[in-house]
Amino acid sequence: DAGITQSPRHKVTETGTPVTLRCHQTENHRYMYWYRQDPGHGLRLIHYSYGVKDTDKGEVSDGYSVSRSKTEDFLLTLESATSSQTSVYFCAISEGRGPESNQPQHFGDGTRLSIL
Amino acid sequence: DAKTTQPPSMDCAEGRAANLPCNHSTISGNEYVYWYRQIHSQGPQYIIHGLKNNETNEMASLIITEDRKSSTLILPHATLRDTAVYYCIVRGSQGNLIFGKGTKLSVKP
Fold this sequence. Notes:
The structure holds 2 protein chains of 2 kinds. Chain A is mostly beta strands.
């Protein structure tokens, strides 16, 4: 299995509080992704990174920010959490030269986040 | 929206081959087809991918039709641990994987 660690694995917090999720990889892959999974929607891309300090928005980026100061770490931040952000969040990594690459993505085990 | 269409559910007897179909009639010439599976509450697990030739690895085989409008994932000897939701996927414009609803495969003893 790809060396991907997500933390925390579970979190319950209140509306309006900031939340940061961490994805750590040991594969030295250039590309990292954050997805969320909700019933009836499958997995949807939030943000992705194509290198240190290089990030871009995905399909559902509103309310989220990301940072990547090191190759191995990709952080997802909810500045002021809302109940609609209750979801399961998955990090993925891939090697390859860009979105056009055919290299598969490998996923972490997810973070289950509940916003009350 | 997902670029692929799969049956919502399938059953398979333990020890038999599981053949999971997928339609991707709008796929372009340079787009790969990826297969993943997700076992309850775990992260999606990569299985196999291909462009136009049949592919095989230690987990499964992928058969892609000559016109590339459909494919079949084959698990040669299904076990109870293969019970999962299987996703047939084509990438989006940002390189993201576009997940549809997948096929829920139930392997029965």
